[in-house]
C-alpha cells in the first residue's frame, strides 16, 4: 500500500527552517545501538566501519538495512561486495567501535576476528552478527541505503549493548 504524499507536500532542503547542525542534534536524541560493518575488498583486504544506522526491514525474507555516506572511502567495496557482516557491539566493545570509526589508521590492527560462513570477517565478542548477501541500494540524499538479505545470524544473550546517544557512547543501561 502506497500512502506517500504528493511531491508538492515535501519541503525542499533549501526552504528548511533549521540548520544541518540543528538537524543532527535533533537526530542525536534518538538512542541507537552501535555496529561495525565488515567485508572483503576484491583484493582480499578487510574493510570495516562503525555505524549507528541499522534496522530490521523484513522477517520474511530476513532483510536488514543500513546507510553509508556516498563519499565514504569504503563505498566502492560495499557497492560491489557479494556479502558483508553487521557486527552488533556489546558494552565491552566501546574501544573497538571507536577504532573502526577513526580515519587514517589501520582499523584492523590488533582486532580478533574469524571468517563467517559466507566468507566475511566477524568480530570476536560481538553480541550479534548478521551475514548478509548484498541486496538493493537506494539513493537517499548524501547517503546510500543498503539492504542486506540475512544468510546467517547468531547472537549471545544477556550481554548489554553498546549504545549511542547525543554524540556519546553509553555502556550501562539505567532503568
UniProtKB/TrEMBL annotation:
Q: Which InterPro entries match?
A: Flavin_Rdtase-like_dom, NADH-dep_flavin_reductase, Split_barrel_FMN-bd
Q: What is its EC number?
A: 1.-.-.-
- Residue span, Flavin reductase like domain: 27-171
Q: Which Pfam families match?
A: Flavin_Reduct
Q: Is Nuclease among this UniProt entry's keywords?
A: no
Task: Quote one Gene Ontology molecular function term.
Answer: oxidoreductase activity
Keywords on record? Oxidoreductase
User: The organism sits in which domain of life?
Assistant: Bacteria
What family is this?
Belongs to the non-flavoprotein flavin reductase family.
Q: Which PANTHER family match?
A: FLAVIN REDUCTASE (PTHR30466), FLAVIN-DEPENDENT MONOOXYGENASE, REDUCTASE SUBUNIT HSAB (PTHR30466:SF11)
Protein name listed in UniProt: Flavin reductase family protein
Which organism is this protein's natural source? Comamonas sediminis
Amino acid at each position: 500500500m502506497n500512502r506517500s504524499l504528493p511531491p508538492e507536500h515535501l519541503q525542499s532542503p533549501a526552504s528548511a527552517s533549521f540548520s544541518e547542525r540543528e538537524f543532527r542534534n535533533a537526530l542525536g536524541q534518538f538512542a541507537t545501538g552501535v555496529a561495525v560493518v565488515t567485508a572483503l575488498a576484491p583484493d582480499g583486504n578487510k574493510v570495516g566501519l562503525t555505524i549507528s544506522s541499522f534496522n530490521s526491514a523484513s522477517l520474511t525474507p530476513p532483510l536488514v538495512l543500513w546507510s553509508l555516506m556516498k563519499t565514504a572511502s569504503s563505498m566502492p567495496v560495499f557497492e560491489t561486495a557479494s556479502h558483508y557482516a553487521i557486527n552488533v557491539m556489546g558494552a565491552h566493545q566501546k574501544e573497538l567501535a571507536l577504532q573502526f570509526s577513526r580515519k587514517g589508521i589501520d582499523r584492523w590492527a590488533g582486532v580478533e576476528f574469524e571468517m563467517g560462513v559466507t566468507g566475511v570477517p566477524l568480530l570476536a565478542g560481538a553480541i550479534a552478527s548478521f551475514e548478509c548477501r548484498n541486496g538493493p541500494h537506494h539513493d537517499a540524499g548524501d547517503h546510500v541505503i543498503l539492504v542486506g538479505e540475512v544468510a546467517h545470524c547468531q547472537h549471545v544473550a544477556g550481554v548489554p549493548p553498546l549504545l549511542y546517544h547525543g554524540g556519546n557512547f553509553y555502556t550501562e543501561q539505567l532503568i
